């Protein structure tokens, strides 16, 4: 609640400031590049790959930060007002949604509107009452972890950039086509390496891998639900441990930007080990990118699930 008030107040102050300066948002940087603001890493990756030298990308979530509950400073709200395009995922980061609504109406691409989103799992509703995160509650945001859906989003983004910046539309389209092929290759790798596995249950920290599970016929059992820092209930822990035992799970996955403590507790209880599965909400290692993290995840999955190819 406090956070929403602060964001709203900041937005009002900034709106006043820019109105008094009399500089309308141009959407382009002084060097002529299209100014694109991205809400979190996978959207930054798409924008940089498709935009290349034609765009100046500003990201709202710092590298290494957990994006679910990002808060915006006045500079970032000003970036949103100034952007030619804001790329975000409605329902994932309430502070970003609010700023987009107030500052960038008509200049935003909600990537969740490009492909149908999966409904949020039942277990994700174990929230602290009054928590704003995932208030819409009905959809799962982690769509970028499915390369096929992500490629559809890439194509849509290229089309949108081309309409805003028609002089460079051919470049956006060509780079999106290349990216689409690379994502299709990644999908082929996933499908073939996960085809034959001893187990298909994926025990994870927070519910981030359902699009991936949906694509490759795995079942995700998560410990904390959709908010990574929620405390799981004892009932939930007992349920996850029972599933892990019942399916002969050898690995409990934890993720890079969140403490592994809960995963370690469950692993100890069922005699499993822990390993990293990165939900790619932000980059945790310098030099990594979407493809390198997705391939590390694939290796971790084939090991944990006992896949034979
Ligand atoms: Zn998440």
List keywords for this structure.
309 residues, alpha/beta, binds zinc ion
Q: Helix proportion of residues, in percent? A: 40-55%
Span from first to last CA? 50 Å
- The proportion of strand residues reads 5-15%
Spatial strand sequence of the major β-sheet: 2-1-3-4
Derived structural class:
alpha/beta
Count of individual beta strands: 8
- Oligomeric status of the shown chains? single chain
The general outline is globular
Instruction: Return the average pLDDT rounded to an integer.
Output: 87
Radius of gyration: 20 Å
Provide the low-confidence segments as ranges. 9-24, 124-136
Order of helices and strands: HEHEHEHEHHEHEHEHEH
Which sheet architecture does the biggest sheet show? 4 strands, parallel
Please count the helical segments: 10
The distinct ligands, each listed once, are: zinc ion
Description:
This protein has 309 residues and is of the alpha/beta class. It has helices spanning 2-21, 41-51, 74-82, 94-103, 147-164, 169-193, 210-215, 234-246, 261-270, 290-305, and strands at residues 34-38, 55-59, 85-88, 108-110, 201-206, 219-225, 251-254, 273-276. The chain is 45% helix and 12% strand. Bound molecules: zinc ion (ZN). Residues 68, 142, 206, 208, 228, 279, 281 line the site of zinc ion (ZN).
């Amino acid at each position: 609640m406090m956070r929403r008030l602060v964001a709203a107040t900041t937005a009002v102050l900034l709106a006043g400031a820019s109105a008094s300066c009399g500089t309308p948002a141009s959407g382009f940087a002084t060097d002529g590049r299209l100014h694109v603001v991205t809400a979190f890493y996978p959207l930054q990756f798409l924008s940089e790959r498709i935009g290349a030298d034609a765009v100046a990308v500003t990201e709202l979530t710092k590298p290494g930060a957990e994006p679910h509950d990002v808060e915006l400073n006045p500079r970032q709200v000003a970036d949103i007002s100034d952007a030619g395009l804001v790329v975000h995922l409605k329902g994932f980061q309430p502070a970003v949604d609010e700023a987009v609504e107030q500052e960038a109406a008509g200049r935003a691409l909600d990537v969740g509107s490009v492909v149908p989103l999966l409904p949020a799992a039942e277990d994700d509703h174990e929230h602290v009452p009054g928590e704003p995160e995932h208030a819409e509650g009905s959809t799962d945001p982690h769509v970028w972890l499915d390369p096929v859906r992500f490629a559809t989003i890439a194509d849509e983004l290229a089309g949108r950039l081309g309409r805003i910046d028609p002089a460079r539309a051919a470049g956006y389209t060509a780079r999106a086509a290349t990216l689409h092929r690379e994502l299709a290759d990644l999908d082929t790798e996933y499908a073939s390496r996960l085809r034959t596995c001893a187990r298909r249950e994926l025990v994870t920290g927070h519910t981030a891998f359902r699009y991936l599970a949906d694509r490759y016929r795995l079942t995700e059992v998560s410990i904390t639900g959709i908010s990574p820092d929620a405390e799981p209930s004892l009932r939930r822990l007992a349920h996850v441990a029972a599933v892990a035992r019942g399916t002969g799970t050898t690995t409990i996955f934890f993720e890079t930007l969140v403490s592994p403590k809960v995963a370690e507790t469950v692993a100890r209880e069922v005699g499993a080990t822990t390993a990293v599965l990165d939900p790619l909400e932000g980059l945790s290692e310098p030099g990594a990118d979407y493809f390198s993290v997705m391939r590390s995840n694939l290796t971790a999955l084939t090991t944990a699930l006992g896949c034979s190819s």
